[in-house]
Amino acid sequence: MMEQGERPARRRRRWPFFLLLFLVAISLFLHAAKALRARDCVQAHKKYKRLPVEKPIKETMAMRVRFYKAQFCLAYPQSVSYAAADLIRRFDGIIPPLRLLRVQVDPGLQDLGFALTVGVDAASLYAAQRKFAVFFSKLEMLAGIIEASFSLGERSGRLHVFLVTGRAELP
């Protein structure tokens, strides 16, 4: 039998000690990482605090303005010529069976003004107007056309002439 002063032998639990040791090690690691990051932030703040703030910003803004002005002046003629050529190609795609007698494109800063002279071969004015109405409805449906209007021009034999004016977007 056991004597009264003795306790039964039991196995000691060691896992709480190791868990506590692991948590202390993680905590020390995180505090050290935080201190390193804070030191880097303080050094960066001291380094960039000495820079004059307004001067580099104003210089950069002036450089950008000069760049965009030069870019606009150099690229504007080329972009306008491409846009005018594209507009004429789109007109040419919808013109048959009519004839495009004259094309004038006047570029602006925001849009392209155009004037077309369209010849319609028909026996009567009514037939010419019907053919022209089909063309004009296609013209109004073209992408980029802001406004368009027409008027009746001269007649020479079977050829009826219509004058179309309008504006198109500059891409």
Mind sketching the topology for me?
Layout: H1 15-49, H2 54-94, E1 99-107, E2 111-121, H3 125-141, E3 145-156, E4 159-169
Antiparallel strand pairs: 1-2, 2-4, 3-4
Short description:
It contains three helices and four strands, in the order H-H-E-E-H-E-E.
- How many helices? The count is 3
Regions with little confidence, pLDDT below 50 for 5+ residues = none
Classification by helices and strands: alpha+beta
Record field, number of beta strands: 4
Radius of gyration: 41 Å
By CATH, the topology of the largest domain is Alpha-Beta Plaits
CATH architecture of the largest domain: 2-Layer Sandwich
State the helical fraction: 40-55%
Residues in β-strands, percent: 25-35%
Average per-residue pLDDT, rounded, comes to 86
| CATH C-level of the largest domain | Alpha Beta
Q: What's the helix-strand series?
A: HHEEHEE
Spatial strand order of the main sheet:
1-2-4-3
Judging from the principal axes of the Cα atoms, what is the shape? elongated
Gap between N and C termini, in Å?
104 Å
What does this protein look like?
This protein has helices at 15-49, 54-94, 125-141; strands at 99-107, 111-121, 145-156, 159-169. It is built from three helices and four strands. Helices cover 54% and strands 25% of the residues. It is an alpha+beta fold. The mean pLDDT is 86. Strands 1-2-4-3 form a four-stranded antiparallel β-sheet, covered by helices on one side. It is elongated. The protein folds into two domains: 18-68; 84-169, Ribosomal protein S6/Translation elongation factor EF1B (Alpha-Beta Plaits). A hairpin with a 3-residue loop joins strand 1 (99-107) and strand 2.
